[in-house]
Amino acid sequence: MPEEELFKTEEEVPRTEIAKSLRDAADQIESGDVRLVSDRKEQTVALPDRPRFEVELERLTDSETGEQRYELEYEIRWTK
Asked: What are the pLDDT digits (tens) for 21-69?
């Protein structure tokens, strides 16, 4: 099945701003409707009552430099 990216944003921001965004997202998730907004795009999606929730922490190492970075991901999935 082909992927279609409907919305994506990525930027470096202060940790306090990330926490605020996650609190706002939690309120929207609880209500069942999530509105995603960036400078260029807006997307709204309705969540089902029981979606799948995944939390993942990874440590990745750059094969050329040996530099390590971490990724903490919160993912909500469902089928239509």
From this structure: 999 999 999 999 999 999 889 999 999 999 999 999 999 999 999 999 9
From first CA to last CA, the distance across the chain in angstroms is 14
- CA distance linking residue 33 with residue 71, whole number of Å: 26
Return the C-alpha torsion angle 48, 76, 37, 26, nearest 10: 80
Contact 36, 29 (CB under 8 A): no
User: Based on the structure, what is the number of domains in the chain?
Assistant: 1
**Do residues 78 and 47 make contact, with C-beta atoms less than 8 angstroms apart?**
yes
The rounded distance, in Å, linking the Cα atoms of 7 and 79 is: 17
pTM: 0.84
- With respect to residue 4, please indicate whether it lies within any of the assigned structural domains: no
Domain carrying residue 45: 15-77
